[in-house]
Amino acid sequence: MRSFELFLPTRLIYGADCLEKLSSATAAYGRKALVLYGGGSVVRSGLLDRVKAALPGVECVDFAGIEPNPRIESVRRAVKVCRDESVDFIVAVGGGSVLDASKAIAAGFYYDGDAWDLVLDHSKIGRALPIFAVLTLAATGSEYDGAGVITNEATQEKLHLGAPNLFPVASFCDPSVSTTVPAWHTAAGAADIVSHVFEQYFVSETNEVSDGFCEAVLRAVVHNAPKAVADPNDLDARSALMLASSFGCCGLLAVGNSPSPWPCHGIEHEISAFHDVTHGAGLAVITPHWMRYTLNAETAPKFAQLGVNVFGLDPKAGVEANARKAIECTAEFFASIGLPRTLAELKVTDEHFEEMAEHVEKFWYPLANAFRPIDRAGVLEILRASL
Ligand code: NZQ
Ligand code: ZN
């Protein structure tokens, strides 16, 4: 087992009554909040009103319109509002995009320069406004990590920023809030969670404990995503997905493992940067192709382990057969919940593939450390196979 440090400073508050704790959780942080949200789902559902009602005595300054794949322009505008209004903290009400934007805004508030600098150079992140997250969609795990992903349309870059002080102070997670998430985003969120687990599970060194965490989360998603897609009001399914979201990206699943460069995420962020696709849908296409690219004699036992422990394959079928079958089970799972099999279905062409591969090489973690090392030609091979 490798040495590791697990740092999870966020108070994770789950349950239908979680908003009752919002006021006491924010009490020590001031009396004026930026309330950040997206395109209006939280207005329509009445959640925004419930959040404000749960903050008596706090002056709320609204900032609406954070886009899926949040843009740096929105971050810049929100930083200005925070400064003009001298807010004390941020309440981010939404999915990963709103929560991610809140992290860039929180750090941008104290940075004397353009917030995009913080994305390009994490060492410039200093103090940050306290963040309180009210989660509405099970997917990214942004409610329980210190990272955010921001898009710069002008440069066609989608990059992450991260720092220990960008973890939310507290995250409020009521799975019933996610019953209004449409089937497409429910499925995309499930694919995102699966990918987060794969990115940590498929590395050269793992251990029985981390593998067990990963497989438990995967089984929960494979079991419950079809239920939530079929019946949006299935609260047990929504609860399992939300819990899987929170633990999918926080580092717990990788304890003691060798590090991973998260190859599918590196490639998918490029697709989103150029084509503004839904993150989880892009991952659903890329992931099976990455698996096929990665499968070889050395990696087959782990793919077979996935097949046996998550998809219920018979170990007697042997490693090679089960490894191949596990990859097809993964592809079928994504398709069964309504996600695309090809980039063409997402209206992605091969026009920017060369630039994407170049960006992955330039900005992402070294893919030479992937489960099967990937070079620039390998990224292109995976992209072309995904078309
Ligand atoms: O904008 P509104 O109107 O709120 O609608 C949103 C949006 O259109 C809707 N939605 C959210 N909650 C809802 C709801 N609709 C009805 N009822 C609800 N309860 O869903 C749509 C998608 O929302 P978004 O926040 O974009 O989805 P998601 O949570 O999947 O976030 C995706 C973003 O997170 C980044 C992705 O790259 C992408 O930009 N990621 C962040 C990570 C992190 N912080 O660690 C890791 C991930 O790997 C990922 O890269
Ligand atoms: Zn993701």
* CATH fold-level assignment of the largest domain: Dehydroquinate synthase-like, alpha domain
The total count of helices amounts to 15
What's the CATH class of the largest domain, please?
Mainly Alpha
Q: What is the chain-wise order of helices and strands?
A: EHEHHEHEHHEEEEHHHHHHHHH
- Given the C-alpha coordinates, what overall shape results? globular
Content of β-strand? 5-15%
Helical fraction: 40-55%
Distance between the termini: 38 Å
What small molecules does this complex bind? 5,6-dihydroxy-NADP, zinc ion
Structure overview:
- This protein is an alpha/beta fold and 387 residues long.
- It has 2 domains: 11-177, 3-Layer(aba) Sandwich (Rossmann fold); 182-386, Dehydroquinate synthase-like - alpha domain (Dehydroquinate synthase-like, alpha domain, Up-down Bundle).
- Helix content is 48%, strand content 11%.
- It contains 15 helices and 8 strands.
- The protein has helices spanning 22-26, 41-44, 47-53, 72-85, 96-110, 116-120, 183-201, 208-230, 235-248, 263-275, 279-294, 300-309, 319-336, 353-363, 376-386, and strands at 11-14, 32-36, 59-63, 89-94, 131-135, 147-152, 157-162, 170-173.
- It has a 6-stranded parallel beta sheet, sandwiched between helices. It has a two-stranded antiparallel ribbon with strand order 6-7.
- The chain is globular.
- The model has no long low-confidence stretch (mean pLDDT 98).
- The structure holds 5,6-dihydroxy-NADP (NZQ) and zinc ion.
- Zinc ion binds at residues 140, 192, 195-196, 265, 279.
